[in-house]
Specification:
Blueprint lengths: L2 E6 L2 E6 L10 H16 L6 E5 L3 E3 L12 H20 L4 E5 L2 E3 L1 H7 L3 E5 L3 E3 L13 H9 L1 H10 L3 E2 H6 L5 E3 L4 H13 L3 H14 L4 H16 L2 H11 L12
Parallel strand pairs: 2-3, 3-5, 4-6, 5-7, 6-8, 7-10
Antiparallel strand pairs: 1-2, 8-9
Bound molecules: ligand LHQ.
The site of ligand LHQ has 25 residues, from helix 2 and strand 6.
């Protein structure tokens, strides 16, 4: 099984599961991941996802053994398969926590960066390995990197393919937080529990607003905020949040849209 899916109250844990190949990405793995995202989105009771890797790596990027002998154009066809996965992850109407347990290289690094909240084990590294094999950062790397770390660092990382230690990634704003290796999964589960109890529909709208902000000017973004806020304010969780505040008690969110 290229991935494992475990269900917990309110959330699911997806584990990339080819540890002998450092969870290198294959078409089968990408398709399984895509189906797991669809299943999570279709399940009303699933209000957060955690993504991690089995063994000592998070994901070593494309399985290079699978592209040996491919005609040059076939690499583009592979991305026709992977790009919808990145878009789906981004558009998923629930938060995705990526628990980077070890090296995240090539497409594996960018799969992590496509997630909403990236936690990394202190021993993890992020490598834009592409330049080592004459390729460019794909799976969104050229989009995510400059936005997260700035163009100067993005260019150097893409051209030098140097590993970035988790602590540096956090200092640079590439990821959310570094945690001790042996605390990674406990922290990721803790975040998922917290997110599973949050106003899920509101968080889905947050994702939409922040992604649109990457290309909108202020005028358009203000218009979008207006529309999304109207939608958020129509959700039962908004009413519950206000009630809970006034009654000085924790909110009991359902995550529902209406
Ligand atoms: C691997 C891989 C791997 C197969 C480790 N494949 N076996 C590209 C093309 C087409 C379309 C779609 O998109 C892409 C995007 C990409 O992702 S291109 C970039 C592909 N990834 C890489 O270039 C990274 C290759 N791997 C590495 O540089 C190293 O393995 C890293 C830095 C990840 C880890 O290094 P180490 O910790 O020293 O481990 P290792 O190199 O000894 O690897 C352990 C095993 O895993 C080893 O197999 P073996 O049989 O010798 O034990 C590796 O061959 C295998 N492995 N990555 N991507």
């Amino acid at each position: 099984m290229p991935i494992l899916v475990e269900t917990f109250p309110g959330y699911r844990l997806i584990t990339l599961n080819r540890p002998e190949r450092l969870n290198a990405l294959t078409v089968e793995m990408a398709d399984a991941l895509s189906a797991a995202l669809d299943a999570a989105a279709a399940d009303q009771s699933c209000r957060a996802l955690v993504l991690t890797g089995a063994g000592r790596a998070f994901c070593a990027g494309q399985d290079l053994t699978a592209i040996v002998g491919m005609a040059p154009g076939d690499i583009g066809h592979l991305l026709d398969r992977y790009n919808p996965l990145i878009k789906k992850l981004r558009a998923l109407p629930l938060p995705v926590v990526c628990a980077v347990n070890g090296v995240a290289a090539g497409a594996g690094a960018n799969l992590a960066l496509a997630s909403d909240i990236v936690l990394a084990a202190r021993g993890a590294t992020f490598v834009q390995a592409f330049a080592r094999i004459g390729l460019i950062p794909d799976c969104g790397g050229t989009w995510f990197l400059p936005r997260l770390v700035g163009m100067a660092r993005a260019r150097a990382l893409a051209m030098l393919a140097e590993p970035v230690p988790a602590t540096t990634a956090a200092e640079w704003g590439m990821i959310w937080q570094v945690v001790e290796d042996d605390r990674l999964m406990a922290e990721a589960h803790g975040l998922a529990v917290r997110l599973a109890g949050a106003a899920t529909h509101g968080l889905a709208l947050v994702k939409r607003a922040l992604d649109a902000a990457e290309t909108n000017d202020l005028d358009r973004q203000l218009d979008l905020e207006r529309d999304l806020q109207e939608a958020a304010s129509a959700s039962p969780d908004h009413a519950e949040g206000v009630r809970a505040f006034l009654e000085k008690r924790p909110a009991a969110f359902t995550g529902r849209r209406s």
